[in-house]
Amino acid sequence: MGGWFRTARVGRAVQPIKSWGAPDDASFGLESPVADVRAAVESLRGQPTMVLTGAGTSTASGLPDYRGRGAIPRQPMTYQEFVSSDSSRRHYWARSTVGWPSFRVAQPNRVHELVAQLGTVLPVTGVVTQNVDGLHQAAGSGPVLDLHGRLASVSCLSCGAVMDREVLQATLLRMNPDVASRVDHLAEQAATLPDGDAEVDRTEEFTYPNCPVCGGLLKPDVVYFGENANPDVVTAAFDLLDVSESLLVLGTSLSVMSGLRFVRRAARDGKDIVIVNDGATRGDELATHRLHGRLEDVLQHIVEGLSGRSAR
């Protein structure tokens, strides 16, 4: 096995999300007054703070989101569809094979760098991210909890073994030589969607491997829609929140409960909540400070305000 495998916990199925895409009534393009940003900075100053991030932190790295401005309307595959349908798995793996090359080369952007810088001007207890790209870690943040897992690995639903996604890519290309011969062209032509899932037609004949350990189903080691997050990771995230006095939410519409529950817990416990996002979020009414604007710009002002000098 060459060290490709480790033990993983498999999530249980829950009800799927029904619709995605940019909401019609989202308040995109607003900018908060400087006074509002300063007030948020003062509420954070010196406070142990947990940072909760979403897809908006990675869009500048070329990774689209599900709910932001200009998001492509789509119905993402659910856990139930993936495990119950061979045709759905063929569809997923074909699209993932084409989308993976672009996903794997994504690099941290200025937002990731600024989140890492927060730890030098604020007692950050940890970063809890809904993203599956590993870019916070690459930028130097720590500790980071991947609430929805990492796309860089693939787990077996039967034995729990985990394979490196890059290793699986070579297998998928070898099993599908027609796709392999055109993968670069397909990637250029595809409309790349969130989580490395690219639009690809005619996937009926695409083939994929089973687990080399037990023959079970291989699945991306991420939390699908309709699947629970790893309870150990969720518990660790709540532990970070419990030792924090503030919660800073960045680049997420909080459309799914996996992120919104931390905002609700923070509000219940009387913690300061600062939400920064372009567009409405489900946590807006609970925010102590709600900041609008381009995430990179607002976050730089926050870092500058906390440090007393220009963010670099």
Task: Give the helix/strand layout.
Layout (H helix, E strand, L loop, with lengths): L33 H11 L4 E5 L25 H6 L1 H19 L5 H12 L2 E6 L5 H5 L4 E3 L2 E8 L5 E3 H11 L1 H13 L2 E2 L3 E2 L19 E5 L8 H12 L3 E5 L6 H12 L3 E5 L12 E3 L3 H13 L5
Parallel strand pairs: 1-2, 1-9, 2-3, 9-10, 10-11
Antiparallel strand pairs: 4-5, 4-8, 6-7
Helix pairs in contact: 1-10, 3-7, 4-10, 6-7
What would your notes on this structure say?
There is one protein chain. This protein is α/β, with parallel strands linked by helices and 312 residues long. β9, α9 and β10 (272-276) form a beta-alpha-beta unit. It starts with 33 loop residues before the first helix and ends in a 5-residue tail after the last helix. It has helices at residues 34-44, 79-84, 86-104, 110-121, 135-139, 165-175, 177-189, 231-242, 257-268, 295-307, and strands at 49-53, 124-129, 144-146, 149-156, 162-164, 192-193, 197-198, 218-222, 246-250, 272-276, 289-291. The strands form 3 sheets. Strands 3-2-1-9-10-11 form a 6-stranded parallel beta sheet, sandwiched between helices. The chain has a 3-stranded antiparallel beta sheet with strand order 5-4-8. Strands 6-7 form a two-stranded antiparallel sheet. It is elongated.
Question: What helical percentage do the residues reach?
Answer: 25-40%
Chain-averaged pLDDT: 86
Distance between the termini: 43 Å
Number of helices: 10
Coarse shape:
elongated
| Major β-sheet profile | 6 strands, parallel
Major sheet strand order: 3-2-1-9-10-11
SS-derived structural category? alpha/beta
SSE sequence, one letter per element: HEHHHEHEEEHHEEEHEHEEH
DSSP summary, beta strand count: 11
- Unreliable spans are 1-21
Radius of gyration from CA coordinates: 20 Å
Instruction: Give the strand content.
Output: 15-25%
